[in-house]
Design a protein that fits this description.
It is built from three helices and two strands; from the N terminus they run ααββα. It is of the alpha+beta class and about 110 residues long. It has a domain of about 70 residues. It has a two-stranded antiparallel sheet with strand order 1-2. β1 and β2 form a beta hairpin. It is elongated and about 55 Å long. About 5% of the residues are buried.
């Protein structure tokens, strides 16, 4: 029977997104430029009621964007989101396919 979480915090403790954001917080240097962070996570059932997570994330600096110019910042975020999510979605998708194929003996 699947485990039922008691609260949202319990679910987020082992989240790959949480782990990456915490790691980035330790490694990213302070910048005056805004930064956009995006990621994609896929859960893969590998059989016998076992799942693994495949996660890809990216940090995109928004260079030469003045945070006080809300219109320019909004446009830069939209462009970064489109590019970033396309990249990380493709990466997780490729790894998802590799793992699923290896589980099926391909």
């Amino acid at each position: 029977m699947p485990k039922v979480s008691q609260n949202g915090h319990e679910q987020s403790i082992d989240s790959p997104i949480d782990q990456v954001v915490n790691l980035m917080a330790q490694e990213v240097t302070i910048s005056t430029n805004p930064v956009f962070i995006c990621g994609v996570n896929r859960k893969i059932n590998i059989g016998n009621f076992e799942n693994i997570d495949v996660y890809a994330g990216i940090t995109i600096p928004l260079v030469n964007i003045d945070p006080s110019d809300k219109e320019a910042l909004s446009e830069a975020i939209k462009e970064a989101a489109a590019d970033g999510f396309a990249l990380v979605s493709r990466e997780t998708g490729e790894r998802y396919t590799l793992i699923k194929d290896s589980q099926q003996g391909k």
